[in-house]
Amino acid sequence: MNPSYFISWHSFRLLYATFFRWRVYHAERVPVEGPVILASNHASFIDPPLVCAGVRRVIYSLARESLFRNPIAGAILRSWNVVPVDRDGGGAKGLRVILDKLESGGAILLFPEGTRTSDGQLHPAKAGVGLAIIKSDCPVVPVRLFGTFEAFGRHQRLPRPRRIAMTYGEPVDFRGLRQEAKTAPKPRLKQIYQEAADQVMAAIAALEPCRTVRGFPES
């Protein structure tokens, strides 16, 4: 971790532990080294640092280019290993960034839904994440976030002290689809990308916190 990432990593962990009373489950399912995709649901601005703070390794994430227009904000985001891409990250530039980070042994965070939920519910995955999954050859770990919409949803101006939790799932096996994609015609390829996206979203939806009290996880 570079100094900025290291300080921010600890700061976010303190914030999540005190203000949001976070709980993290099965972080050990994320490989400590080597390429890996973390695929998470997305409900809040606090989601990207939350997923990254839950594991003890550097995670790369993507953000739209407009957030980097301010030189100071751009420098801070880059120091946190946030990479600028087009709005949805699904174009050629976004894919190249993802594959470059994975090929160098990095871990990258993707949000299959493409944007923050507007109602707190899970939404269908975009095919772009399936393309990244099929083009790569690394583990894909689903991640489910709980409570972040209530804590700081897109309808709120300020965060609220609501309890949040996060569960890392077992890696999803895409060997069959990846093998088929090597020889599949273009029409079938599009279907494969969407199937991969749907599979990872289903894996996210299946995750639950380890124990629940009043709807929120407790250790």
Separate helix tally: 8
Our measurement of the CA-to-CA distance between the termini, rounded to an integer number of angstroms, reads: 28 Å
Structural class: alpha/beta
Sequence of strands across the biggest β-sheet: 1-7-6-2-5-3-4
Number of strand segments: 9
Q: What is the level 1 CATH name? A: Alpha Beta
Overall pLDDT confidence: 91
Order of helices and strands: HEEHEHEHEHEHEHHEE
| Strand-residue proportion | 15-25%
The named CATH superfamily: Glycerol-3-phosphate (1)-acyltransferase
Unreliable residue runs: 212-219
Describe, in plain words, how this protein is organized in 3D.
With 219 residues, the chain is an alpha/beta fold. It has a single domain (3-217), classed as Glycerol-3-phosphate (1)-acyltransferase (3-Layer(aba) Sandwich). Helix content is 39%, strand content 17%. It is built from eight helices and nine strands. The chain has helices spanning 3-18, 47-53, 71-79, 92-103, 127-135, 148-152, 175-181, 186-206; strands at residues 23-25, 36-40, 59-64, 82-85, 107-110, 140-146, 165-168, 212-213, 216-217. Strands 1-7-6-2-5-3-4 form a seven-stranded mixed sheet, sandwiched between helices. Helix 1 packs across helix 2 and helix 5 crosses helix 8. The chain is globular, with a radius of gyration of 17 Å.
Core attributes:
219 residues, alpha/beta, seven-stranded mixed β-sheet, Glycerol-3-phosphate (1)-acyltransferase
Provide a brief overview of the structure.
This protein has 219 residues and is of the alpha/beta class.
